Design the sequence.
């Protein structure tokens, strides 16, 4: 083959490519326009979604991730549309197949991570608690410090930090003590069997009604609960404001101190536990009788 023929074939190839490129210019312009329009539309949609999610969720990480995911999905859709205009359907099919296989592999490999992520989103939407609430879950009581994509950060009342996976928090019962901003305080005490029960009830209710930390509504409740071993036991209940666990402890401490002071002023004793020691095999012999018998036995042995 001569050199002239080689250049002729090469020229024909280059001219064909040039004509094809010129013919593709409208498609290239349209594809570029679609990519640019999709990019701006994705940013606007992400911003609108972020503002909408903020109304129902206080978790910034979840909000940011959802908004970014929507933005990426819209950009990917614009990319596939642009490839379709450029008549690259096979490339689009290959990309979709690759994405599907990758998503399936990640789904099997990251089941726990996905479960924690979904649980975090559901808790952010349902609001079983908020940052700063006092909650009890999975056997831990503390203040919610932060809600993350994977875990919940809970600061215990004793100072330790507990990191709980969102899946465990979502699946297990949650007790939110801060939900109503108030909490009931129960104080139990026992009085002697010889006391006037009506007088004791009146004294206790008067004391509780004057507590500074007690809420006006509802009214205090008083109940006799049991016949104890050495006392008749009662419980008085009232409601107090609640933001932290120390509020509940302080209200109960104030009530115990006030009741003990009132009992001392009214000469209402709080009985100690009473134990009776029986020194006979068949029963009925007290410690005094046993000591007398022991003295008699020693005297008899001494005389012998």
Sequence:
């Amino acid at each position: 083959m001569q050199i002239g023929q080689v250049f002729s074939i090469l020229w024909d190839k280059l001219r064909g490519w040039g004509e094809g490129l010129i013919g593709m210019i409208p498609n290239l312009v349209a594809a570029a326009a679609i990519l640019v329009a999709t990019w701006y539309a994705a940013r606007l949609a992400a911003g609108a979604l972020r503002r909408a999610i903020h109304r129902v969720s206080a978790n910034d990480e979840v909000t940011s991730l959802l908004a970014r995911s929507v933005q990426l999905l819209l950009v990917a859709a614009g990319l596939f549309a642009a490839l379709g205009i450029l008549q690259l359907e096979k490339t689009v099919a290959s990309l979709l197949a690759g994405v599907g296989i990758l998503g399936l592999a990640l789904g099997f490999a990251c089941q726990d991570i996905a479960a924690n992520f979904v649980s975090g989103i559901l808790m952010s939407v349902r609001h079983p608690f908020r940052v700063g609430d006092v909650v009890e879950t999975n056997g831990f009581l503390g203040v919610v410090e932060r809600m993350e994509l994977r875990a919940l950060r809970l600061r215990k009342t004793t100072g330790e930090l507990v990191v709980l996976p969102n899946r465990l928090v979502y699946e297990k019962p949650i007790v939110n003590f801060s939900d109503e901003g108030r909490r009931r305080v129960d104080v139990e005490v026992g009085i002697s069997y010889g006391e006037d029960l009506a007088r004791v009830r009146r004294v206790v209710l008067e004391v509780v009604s004057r507590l500074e930390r007690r809420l006006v509504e509802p009214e205090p409740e008083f109940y006799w609960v049991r016949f104890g071993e050495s006392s008749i036991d009662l419980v008085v209940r009232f409601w107090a404001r609640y933001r932290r666990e120390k509020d509940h402890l302080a209200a109960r401490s104030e009530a115990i101190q006030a009741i003990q002071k009132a009992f001392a002023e009214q000469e209402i004793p709080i009985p100690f536990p009473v134990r009776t020691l029986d020194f006979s095999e068949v029963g009925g012999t007290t410690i005094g009788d046993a000591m007398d018998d022991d003295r008699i036995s020693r005297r008899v042995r001494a005389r012998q």
Observations:
- The mean pLDDT is 77.
- The chain has eight helices and eight strands.
- The longest helix spans residues 3-54.
- The beta strands are 134-137, 140-147, 151-156, 161-165, 174-176, 182-191, 221-227, 232-241.
